Amino acid sequence: MKTRITELLGIEYPIIQGGMAWVAEHNLAAAVSEAGGLGLIGGANAPGEVVREEIRKAREITKKPFGVNVMLMSPHADDVARVVVEEGVKVVTTGAGNPEKYMNMWKEAGVKVIPVVASVAMAKRIERMGADAVVAEGMESGGHIGELTTMTLVPQIVDAVSIPVIAAGGIADGRGIAAAFMLGAEAVQMGTRFVVAKESTVHENYKQRLIKASDIDSTVTGRSHGHPIRCLRNQMTREYLKLEKEGKSFEELEYLTLGALRKAVQEGDIKNGTVMAGQIAGMIDREMTCKEMIEEMMEQASGLLER
């Protein structure tokens, strides 16, 4: 299945793995790339040297293309942006901000820049800056979310820009991939599905929580202060939503979630940690290798699109 995205990135399948904080490390990124997609190392809040080490470890596992996700709100974003260039990484996705200040440096180094956006206005602005493609992420996704659904956001962005559009949010299988293509996307980005990959190093408790999730287990915290985050219901989310309803300050609420994602991903505390996951969690029923996952999804998507 060739698209402008597969040609641009030099990958076999139009599937990109999301740059999830604490989850998207070198093992997962390399496995996705080896399976024919594009793996991403999640920069999150990590210092530049930690990201450099992850890049080098990924290169020991795969010779295929992979990228780095730069979280622009990170205090280390400047260093990570520079490390990407120094290490010769050829693909960058960005989130939580505007990548304009790094565009010249990245473009001069031949880096393909693909920002994640949640609105048509931002997509247009990103295109004017010289971005190579854009990820249109709907509110069905895990982690930080916008207001529009993937079904409504993707076609509006496709109509608004001429660069390729990658759909993200609410995609778990070949049916989701086929639907994204029908909306005009030329690739998909998936996060939650890859969390339960055999190559994923997240705690087994986290994986099992996703596998056992039902369709109604997803919730959103942080709407009251403008930083909505989608995760799975647990003791922490119940307490958070209760405090939100009481009108507690942003600082008080943030204190509740300090280190909560690491607590869930690395320590396996799925009661008090933040179990970030998209609405497709209820569709995940087993652990598979990245290769098995991608090949199964592409076979299903190809069959539907040919029909």
Characteristic terms for this protein:
307 residues; alpha/beta; eight-stranded parallel sheet; three-stranded antiparallel sheet; 15% strand; globular
Could you outline the blueprint of secondary structure elements for this entry?
Elements: H1 4-9, E1 15-17, H2 26-34, E2 39-42, H3 48-61, E3 66-71, H4 77-86, E4 91-95, H5 100-108, E5 112-117, H6 120-129, E6 134-137, E7 143-144, H7 150-160, E8 165-168, H8 174-182, E9 187-190, H9 192-195, H10 204-211, E10 218-221, E11 229-232, H11 235-245, H12 250-256, H13 260-267, H14 290-306
Parallel strand pairs: 1-9, 2-3, 3-4, 4-5, 5-6, 6-8, 8-9
Antiparallel strand pairs: 7-11, 10-11
Helix pairs in contact: 2-3, 3-4, 8-14
Structural features, described:
- The protein has 307 residues and is α/β, with parallel strands linked by helices.
- 43% of the residues lie in helices and 15% in strands.
- The chain has 14 helices and eleven strands.
- An eight-stranded parallel sheet has the order 1-9-8-6-5-4-3-2. The chain has a three-stranded antiparallel sheet with strand order 7-11-10, covered by helices on one side.
- β10 and β11 form a beta hairpin.
- The protein is globular, with a radius of gyration of 18 Å.
- The two termini are 15 Å apart.
- The relative contact order is 0.14.
Q: What coarse outline follows from CA principal-axis ratios? A: globular
Rg computed from alpha carbons, rounded to a whole number of angstroms: 18 Å
Which residue ranges are poorly predicted, with pLDDT under 50 across at least 5 consecutive positions?
none
Separation of the first and last Cα atoms: 15 Å
Q: Average pLDDT value?
A: 94
- Main beta sheet: 8 strands, parallel
Structural class: alpha/beta
Q: Give the strand content.
A: 5-15%
The helix/strand series, from N terminus to C terminus, equals HEHEHEHEHEHEEHEHEHHEEHHHH
The number of helical runs is 14
Tally of strands = 11
Looking across the biggest beta sheet, what order are the strands in?
1-9-8-6-5-4-3-2
Helix content: 40-55%
